[in-house]
Amino acid sequence: MSSDRTAGEDEGTRRRGAALARIWLRPMSYLLGVSMATLSVVYLLDIARHGNERLPIREALLHMSPSDAEHIMGGIGEVIAAILGIVITVASIIVQLAANRYTPRITEMFFRDRTNMVVMGFFVVSAVFSLWVNFSIRVGEGSTEHAFVPTYGVLVTMGLLTASLLMMAPYFLYVFDFVEPDNVVGRIKRSGIEQALRPADHESDGEVDERRVTALSSLEQLADVALNAIDQKDKGIASKTVDSLSELVVAYLPHKATLDPRWFQIRDRLANDADFVSMNAEALGKLSATRTWLEYKALRQFLMVYREALTAMPDLITRIAIDTRYIGQTAIAAGDRAAVAVVVKFFNTYMRRSLNAKDIAAAYNNLNQYRYLAEELLKAGWGDQVLDIARYFKYYAQTAHAMGLAFLTETVAFDLCVVNERAYDLHAPARDELLQLFLEVDKEAELDQQEPSLRGVRKAQVKLATYYLQKGEEALARRIYRDMRDERPDRLRSIRAELLAVTSNEFWEINDRGAVFEYIEPERRQLIHRFFEWFPSTTMREPIREEHTQE
C-alpha cells in the first residue's frame, strides 16, 4: 500500500513539474530572451552613436540624479498598479464565467490556490515596494546635502516591474489552465483523495472531522460539475466527472484498513450532511460500523446524476454503470464485502429507476455491467453475494414481465445463463442454487403481450442446456428439460426453430454487448436437436430444418 501511495506522490510531483515548465518557465524564458536580445541590439546601436562610445553600461544604469530617480519611479509605480488591476480584473472575469458554467465552488478553489496567492502576492509586494522607494527619494531643493537617491531600490523596482510584465502572459495562461474542465475535475479529485488518505497522526477529532467534510465536499463538487455539464449537454465533461468520482473511490478503497478509526464515524459536521441527516440512527450506525460512508456518499452522487441523465443524457447511464462496477471490483480486490454490498444496493436502485421510467436501454446497459460484477464475484469465490444478485435479477425479470417489458425479461434470462456458465467453469459451490433460480424466472403469461418474454427465458434455458450437454453434464441439462416438459408443443417447436435460425453472432445494430442473445456456437447448436429429442415425439413431431440466415 505504501508503495502505491509513493508511486502516486511521484506521479503528482512529475505532473506539477511538467505544468510548471509548460505554463511558467518556458513562456517567461522566451519572453525574457526576446526582450534582452532586443535591448542588447538597441543598446549597441545607442553606444555606437557619436559621443556615447566611451559610456560604460554600469554608468548608464547606476548613475542617476534625484530628479531622474523621481521621474523613473513615478512611472514605474503607476505601471505596477495598472498591472495589478488588469490581472485582478481579467482573472475575476474568467473565474466567474467558469464558476457559472461548472460549479460555484471554483471561485473558492481559485482564491485558495497556492500558485494564485503567490502571484497575487508578488504583484502586491511589487506595488508596495515601488511606492516606498518612490517616497524615499529626496531632491534636496537645490542642495545636494539632503538629497537621497535609492539607486539599488530603483534597480530592484525595475527588476520587479520586468518580472511583473513577464509574468502577465503566463499567469493568464495559468488561469485558463486552472479553469479548464479536466483540470478542475482532476484538482477536486486529488483534493478528495489527499484528504481521505492523509495520515491522522496527532490530529485532533476536530481536524479529522474537517478532513472528512472536505473529502465529502469534493464528492459534491464533482456531482455539481456533472449536473451542470448535463444541463449544458456537454457529454465530455459529464463523462470525465463521473469517471473522476469513481477514481476517487477506487484510490481510497485499498487503503481503508490503514485509516484512523475516527475517519469512519459519522458524527459532528459530517452527521449534518443532507444525505446523512435524513437517515435514522440505525442506518447511520450501520454505515459507521461497516466503514462505508464515503462509498455511500459517492454512489449517492452517482444516483443523483443518473436521475438527471435518464432524460437529458442517456449515453451517460452506461458510464455510470461502468464506473459503479469499477468501484465494486476494487472492493472485491480489497476484500471489502460491506463496500460490495453498497455497490449492489445502488445497482438495484439504478434498475428500479430505469423500470419506473420504463427506460429499456438504461436497464439493458445496467444489467450488462451488473452481470460483469457478478462474474467477478464468482471468480473471487463470493458465491453468497452472487446468489443474492441472481435473486435480484429474477425479481427484476418478473417485474419487467408484469410491466410488459418483454425485452428486459429476456435480457435478464440470457445474463443469468452466462452467470450459470461461469459458475460451472469455476466449479462454484453455488452452481446448483444458481440454476434453480434461473429456472424460476419464467412464469405463465397472464397477458398476450407477455408471451415474448417467456419465450426469451425458455431460449436462454435451452442455450444453457446445450452448454451442459457440451460439457457432458446430462443430469444438469435434464433438470432444464424437466422444468420445460409441460410447455405447449407449439411453443417448443417455435423456440427450437428460432434458435436454429440464428447462425451469426454479429448483431445488425449497434449495442454495447455486440452479440446476439440466441446465437449458439455451431458445435453446440447440434445439441439443440439432442435436447429436444427428450420431449415426447408427439410434441416435437414436426421436422425443423436449420436455417442459414440470421433473421
Automatic annotation (TrEMBL):
**Which of UniProt's keywords are assigned here?**
Membrane, Transmembrane, Transmembrane helix
**UniProt cross-references to InterPro entries, sorted A to Z:** DUF2254_membrane (IPR018723)
Coiled coil regions, renumbered to chain = none
Give TM regions. 23-45, 72-95, 116-135, 155-179
Q: What is this protein called?
A: DUF2254 domain-containing protein
